[in-house]
Every structure is written in C-alpha cells, then in structure tokens.
Amino acid sequence: MDILDLRLPSQPDSAYRAVLVGGERWDGSMLDARIRQRASFLQARGLEPGHVVLCPDGPVLDVLLMSSAAARLGVAVFPFRAGLGRAELDVLAVATGTEWRWQPESGDLVSTGVLSAAMIPQETPVARLVKTSGSSGQPKVVMLSAKNLQVSAAAVNRQLGFGVDDVWLCCLRLSHVGGSAILDRTALAGASLVLHERFDAQTLAEDLRRHAVTHISLVPPMLDRLLDVGATPPKSLRVLLVGGQVLSPALAERALAAGWPLYLTYGMTETASQIATSARALERVCVDGSIGPLLSGVEIASGPPATSPARLRVRGPMVMIGYANPQRLPGRGLDDGWFETSDLGGVGVDGELRVGGRADEVLVIGGTNVSLSRVEAVLCQAPGVAEVVVVALDDPVWGHRMVAIYRGKPDEPALCSWCEQALSGAERPREFRRVAELPLLDSGKYDRSLIRAMAQTASKA
C-alpha cells in the first residue's frame, strides 16, 4: 500500500526536528511519542487503512498529530474549517464517503454513519482530501494520494533549498492546501516548524525574528497587512513565498523596497500546491505574468503565451487522483491524467511559466475582449491604491459593466479620472467604491463572491 511515511533516515524518531506552537516547543522525540499514542488510539477505535476521517483545522498541533498518525496507519485525513455546523459536515461526509469524524474537544472519534467505501480496492489510496477555496466558483473536494503529497513536497524543497537546518513558519489555514503542504515539506526535510493558529501581522513579524525563520508562505493580502504594520525581514529569512492570487506590481514594489525576499509561486489544490516557483528572489517587479520554472515532473500542454492565450493543462505526479465522490473512485476532473485549469498562459522559450489571468475573466464589452486581471493590475498602479478587485455585472447594452472595489487614499472621482488616462474605453470600470477593508476567505484570498455582492449593492444605491 502507498502509505506516506515522511520520516527520514537522519530523523529516526520523528519527521520533524522541532515544532513550536504558542510558545511551546516540541522536539522530535516528544512529538513522535504523541504521534504514536494518537495512532494507537485511532487504530483501537476502529480506523483501518483506506478509511477517511474528518478533522477540524484547529488547534493546529492537533491537526499535525492527526495528519502524522493517519499517515502511519494508511488513513486519509479530510481537514475542514473549524466551526462548521453538523449539517455541513454531514454533506461533506456523504459526498466523499468519509467514515469518521475526529472531535478534538472531547478527544474522541465518532462514526459519520456513512457506508464505508474502503471495501472497494483502490490502486492508489487517498491520503488527504482538501476542499478548494471556491473564490470565484463552486468549491469542490480534491483527493490527493501519498505520492502526490510526497512528490510535491520534495520538488518544492529542492527548488527553495529547504533543509534540515531551516525553519518554516506556517500561518495559513491547515484545511487549505497551501497550509497542509507546509507540514509535508517540513516533515520530509526533517526541519523545524512554527505553527500559528491564525494570521496576525504583528505576531507574525515578532515570531519571524524570535525563531530565526528561514521560509514563510503568504497570500498577497497577508503580505499587504504585514507591510502595513511596518515589519522588516529578519536576517535569517531567505524565502517569502507569495501565491494564491496575482501579486500586484504596487504591492511587490513595496515589499521589495522593504527588503523582503519575494518568490512567486503558482499552483492549486488539484496539483497538491505548487507547479512553478521562482528560481531566485525577485530583483524587480514582474509585469508579464512570469512565475518561474516548472517544478520537476510537471508537464504543461498549451501554446506559448505569445500566441493567443490558451487554458493551461497540467500533468505530473503531483496532480490529484480526481475530485471526490462517495466511492472515492479516481479520474473525475481528469482527461487521461491531464487537469485543465481555468487560467490562461503557457511556458515561454526561457522555460518560465507565464500566467495571463483566468479564462472566465476575459469578457466581451462592447465588442472588445477585456481581461479583468489586466484591469486590476493597472488600477493597482494608481497612486495611493493599496488593494483593488474588479468584478463584472451584467449590462443590457454593453454585455458587462465593471465595478472596482478598492482600498486606498484617492476618492472615487479621483480614481475614475486617473483611469481615463491609463485605460482604454472598454477597459475602464464604470463604477468605483472605496472600502475600509476587502473581505477575505479563510485561505486569505479575496472573497470575490462577497465582493461581487458589494458591487451589486453599490450599483443599486
């Protein structure tokens, strides 16, 4: 059976060199004892290889214990956002054939009442289920194998030079692939891990220095908030990995000016996290959609970005088993192993992946093709604009009407006036709304569904 064992010969007692949570430090042997204890308890309660257990994504140390214990038993973990109601959990269990639910508050394992799918032999057992963020569409649940997780972790560690003497700080939710993948990378390297229960910019800035952190992952809104508190990078930090959504030139310039070692990354839940990452820290702002070279084993099927944009199609050992279903059968959402993304782009002659926005964000307005991501990128260059999201509402005459929801110094008339010089007629938003804060998903990405609702409300006002 393809069971993920993240322990290394150099770390026989535990996958991790040390884990630090809320001021407590757990060295490898202490943590290994806790993991073995948890694995024995789960096995005694009836967990068998091939089973799936729902697990809340907090407390974070408990998630780590569950993930590590489950990996040793050949059991899959399905982390979910802590606080979900029973009705929502029942829906997830039925849709994925999940047999068990872990309750950290009582330290007990309970049956979901779902008929076990583990009796169906699977050539590639599921090791982890992860719900997609659904920032602009209907979320799905992705099935990832042990091989998916291990190959991804190894490729990222090689690309970023992450090893046994390094420290990765994780402030991303562990129910999202960006957070859970950090557990895999740190365990595989036998390195140290600093876990935060939630993102807090001031606490993050303090812990980066306190624990001599070498690597950290953030989404752009988190980076923006870190810069807002005046944080500066400690000498120990070699990599600040930015992904999840496009990094605006204005935000990148702020971070580079403050000395942060920015690395861009591109990936998704369906590929167990990254498929392309910067080869070195950015020296200047990228405005052409460049990300970096593909990770080892990744194949891209699309035309070069210089030609007409095409959807990226990805294949490789880190691509998911398929979307979840009650029988946990593989292949759903794949075409002969290929996964087609919603993003446009391709690999240039220099071997770097370039991403040119989402296919569903290219609109026809008055007979002209307009890219929402391009409009956002231009607006982010407006003086005083800190963040901006552009959404499109239906329009009976023009087909679509763009609305810009932003945070920054200029008022609506001033930003509208600036756009007259910076954007062509079809590309100019017809409405602007300045807000104190843009709403975020649990993943840290912008909640585009809620922002769209804000835009609709503004249009009716």
Q: Overall mean pLDDT score?
A: 88
Roughly how many Å apart are the termini? 60 Å
The main β sheet shows up as: 8 strands, mixed
DSSP strand (E) fraction? 25-35%
Gyration radius, rounded? 22 Å
Question: What is the CATH topology of the largest domain?
Answer: Rossmann fold
What is the annotated CATH architecture of the largest domain?
3-Layer(aba) Sandwich
- Poorly predicted ranges: 1-13
The total beta strand count reads 25
* Name of the CATH class of the largest domain: Alpha Beta
Strand order of the largest sheet: 2-1-10-9-11-12-13-14
Helix content: 25-40%
Structural class: alpha/beta
Enzyme class: ligase
EC number: 6.2.1.26
Domain AMP-dependent synthetase/ligase: 121-323
Pfam families: AMP-binding (PF00501), AMP-binding_C (PF13193)
Question: Any key phrases for this structure?
Answer:
o-succinylbenzoate-CoA ligase activity, Rossmann fold, 2 domains, 461 residues, 11 helices, medium-chain fatty acid-CoA ligase activity, 25 strands, EC 6.2.1.26, globular
Written overview of the protein:
With 461 residues, the protein is an alpha/beta fold. It folds into two domains: 18-356, Rossmann fold (3-Layer(aba) Sandwich); 366-460, ANL, C-terminal domain (GMP Synthetase, Chain A, domain 3), CATH 3.30.300. Helix content is 28%, strand content 28%. The protein contains eleven helices and 25 strands. The chain has helices spanning 28-44, 60-73, 86-96, 146-160, 177-189, 201-210, 220-228, 249-257, 372-379, 412-422, 448-460; strands spanning 18-21, 24-27, 52-56, 76-80, 100-103, 108-111, 126-131, 141-145, 167-170, 192-195, 215-218, 239-242, 262-268, 273-277, 290-293, 299-301, 311-315, 322-323, 339-347, 352-358, 362-365, 368-371, 385-395, 399-408, 431-434. The strands form six sheets. An eight-stranded mixed β-sheet has the order 2-1-10-9-11-12-13-14, sandwiched between helices. Strands 15-20-19-17-16 form a five-stranded antiparallel β-sheet. A four-stranded mixed β-sheet has the order 4-3-5-6, covered by helices on one side. Helix 1 packs across helix 2. It is globular. One of its GO terms (molecular function) is medium-chain fatty acid-CoA ligase activity. Keywords: Ligase. It comes from Thiocapsa marina 5811. InterPro entries: AMP-bd_C (IPR025110), AMP-bd_C_sf (IPR045851), AMP-binding_CS (IPR020845), AMP-dep_synth/lig_dom (IPR000873), ANL_N_sf (IPR042099).
